[in-house]
Structures are given as structure tokens and as C-alpha cells.
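As promised in the previous annual report, we have extended the structural survey to additional targets. Below is the entry for Glycosyl transferase.
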Amino acid sequence: MLVALALAVWVTSGLWIDPNGRAITVNSSDQALFEWLLAFGGHALTHGENPLFTYLINVPDGVNLAVNTSITVYAVLFAPLTYLIGPPATFLVILTLNLAATAVAWYWLLSRHLLRSPLAAAIGGLFIGFSPGMVSHANAHLNWTAGWLVPLLVWRLFALRRPGRWLRDGAILGVLVAVAFSIAAEGLFFTALALGLFVAVWALHPANRAEARAVLPSFLRGLAVTAVVAGVLLSYPLWLHFAGPQRFHGTGFDAVIHSEDIAAYAAYPRRSLAGEAGFGTSLAPNPTEENSFFGLPLLVLAVGCFVLLWRGGDAHRRATLWALGIVAVVFTALSFGPVAKIDGHRTDLPMPFDLLGHLPVVNAALPARFALVVTPVIGLLLAYAVDQLRRRPLSRAAAVAWTVGFAVALVPLFPTPLLTSEREPIPRFITSGAWRDHVSPGGVLTPAPLALDVYPDGQRWQAYALANRQGEFAIPSGFFLGPGGPDDRGRIGPVPRPFGALLDQAARTGLPPIVTEGTREEVRADLEHWRIETVVLADEVHGAKWPVDEEAIRRTLVLLFGEPERVEDVWVWHVRR
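The corresponding C-alpha cell record, generated without further manual editing, is:
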């Protein structure tokens, strides 16, 4: 536990320097989103509002948080901490605990239920908890780093085999499924697919058929109870997800872009010793999606562990290895997406996901993330191999060879701290509460540029106001997934409108647009649509992907609305209808 916590603090150390003033360099937009979710969740809890739908962003349509990564359980459980130390620091605490808890939970499952050797369990747990995929998603993904849920789901699923306790065990698993859905729905979906495939292959193996038939009645009764309990607890979130307002089908991300490169499995991740030494690659669509990146030595070691265990195992052990191997092969193939990519080059070779990617729910998954399922399989192989090697006498040469093999495979993957950088501070206009003199209670205030994934300031400001109990103001636009994408799929943020496009152009290019009377008419229509009362421009605007030209934005707003009022450290334009 101490080693896992130390590694988790090491990986996130750049943020611990100043939790409120620093952000994850490669994904500050997602960090701002999760900070907002924590602040909004606590606010909804204390004010009796709906935690799964809000009109505080994306005015006037609102946002369906059930189809977004709402992390509702975290927002509720950590609400006191959010009010005490603020959303950015609470975000950091959860991220750090996620990494440590994932390693500890896998260690607990391995050491208490599967293995004899604590060392073997520690190696397996630490590898899974700090694997390249986990460290990559530590770039602000509170949902995917909650990997501690997976070993708990595995534990409770196989507890359903016990006769006479199916009602109790099924109810416990149902509650755990509801919790997992409310923290990481996509991860729960992947876990369910992997466990379903594993159980089917394991039960159909000749060595296990008799045992499978014996426990099947209790297992199915327990699953039925699980479905009922989880269905009751998740009835409203599931209705919102599939039939509620502002829902969408599919995803706003391109499945070809967000698929795993075949060469990525043998490559090294950027945030590792090998990556720091110059062996990292850019085969992932972005630094948060290095879902495999095991390195060639680890792949060779995993195969060697499989062969060792197969040769030394009985029929039951071989049935387990067979099931693990099938899971690894199937999810590896699915991670390649609709068509194969090799070393950055797209081919015309169709992949299995091309057949399954149009199915409901599957079409909302990013195929590259299927590779995350391979990580626990490799971790289990490593742990089982160490357990077997420690229980059997080895020659000195064999012991040295295995030790060197593990070192060569794992040392290059040792994680390095996440890249962080200073983040533009929240203006005194917000922190002092001065904004309340410039917008009616619950009225609409917008930062310039409008809040989006690339301009997350609006949701950061709102999160601060909510967490510090200053009151509510709504904002147009925002960073969320909603309807309006091509082919009725989802998209990031709302469908663009002229006012937002003008400010975005100025922010990116540094050139104010040509403003005509027609332009002003379009802007007035947008102000009416969003019910905007006040436009605010800070001296320093955070751009998540590129630097922002604040002076060009100010000149654009002057062309549209005239000279602003200076309040605290911002420029304010009053544009009430």
C-alpha cells in the first residue's frame, strides 16, 4: 500500500506542487471538466438539484450528464472535501487515490484469492495499477483511472458460484455495478464483455464443464438478482442515457483515429523511463490514449510466462490460461478499430470492430480502449509466473535468466511524472464575488471566448462559484458531449453559432473579424438565443490547445458592443436584452 501510494504521488507530483495553480499540460480541458463535475455534483447534492441534468451550461438546452462522464458517486462522496479545499485539489486527491487503489485492489485480489506469494501479487498489482494505459489516462481521466473497480467486480462475480448465498451475493454485485456505472460506465461495459467472454470460454473447456454445470443454477440466480438490483438503482440514469433529453447515439470521436496502432503494442509510452530516454512514440491519437504500449520485451516475457504456466499446469490451470488467452486476442483485435493501422499508416484491411462498431452501446466506445483489457491479462500472467517460479526450485542460471527477463521488460516501463504547467488564475472578478453585481441571480454570463473544450475558463469560473457557495450563474456552450454531430451522432459542445465563431477566430488568429451590420444582427440573435446578460474578458485566458490572443478578442468585442467597463481584473460588456 505504501509503495502504491508513493508511486501515485510520484506520477502526480507536478500537480501537488500547486494544486490550484497547475494543470496537466496535455489535457487541461478534461481536468477542468472533471473539476466542474465535482463542483456541480456537490452543489446539486446540497441544493436538491438533479445531479444528472443541468441547465447551468449549454443554455438554453442544458446537458444530459448521464451520457457524459458524470462521476456522480465521486462528486457526492467527496462533496465535503470539494467545499473545504476546492475542486482542483479534490480532483488531485481522487486522481492520486485512483492510481494507488487500483494497484492495491489487484494486489488484494491476487494475494487473497488466487496466489500464494505476496511478492507475485505485488508485481501483478503494481504492474496493472501503473501500466502504460493507466499512467496515460492519469492525464485527467478520473473515470478510467478508477481501475480499482475491476478486481472488485471480478471478486463479486465469481462469488456467485457459492450455493445458498446467491441472493446476498447478487445484491452486493448489483450495488457494485451501480457504483461502477456512476463512475466509469465505459469501463464497466468493457469489464462486463471481458468477464462474459472469460466465463463462457472457461466453462466450455472440458476440464471445467462438470464444475460449471454444478454451479450454474446458483450463478444464474445470482446474476438475476444483480440485474434487478442494478436495474432499480440505475433506472433513472439508464432512462436518461437512452431516452432522456439531449441524448445522442454513438460518439463524437472518429473510430479510425481513436483505434490502436498494431505497432503500438510493441512501442514504449512517453511517460516512462524508456520514453524519457527517447524511445517514446506518437502512435497514439493523443497522449491520454496510450492504451497498450507494452514494449517488445514485455510481450516476449508475457508469452514466456504463458508457456511456463501451460507446461507446468494441470487441466484446470490450462483452461484458465486458455480463457485468458482468448480474452487477450479478442480485445487486441477489437482495439485495432474498423481498419488496421501499422506504424502510423492506415491500411484497407478490415478489422472485427468494423462489424461490431455499429451496434448500440458499442458504437459509443473508442476502440483503442479495448487494449486496456489486455493489461490485466498480462498482469495475471506475470503474477502467476512469479508465484510458480517461487514455489519450484530453479537452477541458478534459470533464476538469473527470469530475473533479467522481468527487469528488461518492466524497468523501461517505470512511470515518470505527468507533464504539468501553470494555469491562468481565476480572475478576482469571480473569486471576490463581484460577478454578482453584473448578472441577475441564475442569469447568463459568458466568458470570451465562449466555454468549450479548448477554452475551459467558463466552467472553471462556474465551478469556483458553486464550490464557494457564491450562487449560480449560467453559461452558454461548454465542454460536454451532446447531440448535433454528423449522422445524428454526438459531438463535443453545441453546434457552433456566429458569435462563438467570431471570438474563436480572433482568439486563434489574433485578427479581429470584419464586422458588418449583418454580423451584428447575427450576434444579436445569438444573444437572444442564449439570454446572455454579460460578456466578460479576463486579462489572461486559458487555451487548452493553443495560446489565446486576448487583445484581438477585446477589439472584436469593442467592434460589436462598444467600449467595456473595467471591473476588478476583467473587461465587462453589459448586453442585456
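The mean pLDDT is 95. The chain has 23 helices and twelve strands. These points will be discussed at the next consortium meeting with the crystallography subgroup.
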